[in-house]
Amino acid sequence: MVSEFNFILDLIKRLPDEKSCHQYLASRRWNGYMVCLDEFCGNDKAYIFKDGIHYKCTCCKKIYTARTGTILESSKISLTKWFVGLYLVMHKKGISSVQLAKDLAITQKSAWFLLQRMRIVLGNEQDEQLEGTIEIDETFVGGKNKNRHVNKRVKYSPGRGWPDKTPVFGMLQRGGKLKAYVVDNVNMLTITKITNYHVRKYSDIMSDGFNGYRGLERSF
Which domain of life, per UniProt (predicted)? Predict the structure, then answer.
């Protein structure tokens, strides 16, 4: 993503606003063959809103954007800044969160989180499957419960995690390759579907005893 732009001015001219950024992301993600993001639907037709950003499935009526279901979904930073930041990260040998914050006019804390997510995005850029020994794990991204006011704290729900946080499922190949995805949930169906797609058959899967991993026994 954005590797096709040789100069930052090319990027800015091609993607000057949120609409153009979303349409570019949609073209890279679906390549003209859009499929509903509801795991139980799979319909390939959708209405496009006038803003050119939102889509509505003609079947289940789910509304989504090109960000939905990606590491970009929960980010409040605009796609224009995301793409400029991604360009800077890809075209410099190294960039600190302090410098990225200055370049994008965002806080250093936001720049730090942006860098972490960009590393995941760049890790997912390659389409080849992971193979060999693969470590899988799930995590939940969001604010710390202890930092909330006492009347806004939420209770942990076994099997679901923290209901106010975003679940992320990751797969790490021994040797360094990493793929991680924002998911709607970490149930067995979701995890099995993602793992079957991104991990070569007969690879060795290393995981903990979480129930969501039980379905992998039949595939690996």
Answer: Bacteria
